[in-house]
Amino acid sequence: MRRFVAWLACGTGAVFVFRWRLRRRRPVGAAPDPAEELKRKLEESRVEPAAPEPPTAEPAPVDEHRREVHERGRAAIEQMREQGRSGDG
User: Which one, of 59, 80, 79, lies nearest residue 68 by Cα?
Assistant: First the structure.
């Protein structure tokens, strides 16, 4: 049992040393600064010309639109009332 524990300890130590040395060898890359990235994007957005908005169709007059909305609402209410009456039966 002692040999097993000794081998286990040596193996664990060897893995630890191996991973530690691997970590030391890797060059530590500088992580990109988020603030610099945002500054770059902001600068790009300022440099690019704003795309012209596509022409839109003239909206219907407000009164006409309001009337259509009210008509659809009244029709929906009437439909619900009819369904409620037929369901009460």
Answer: 59
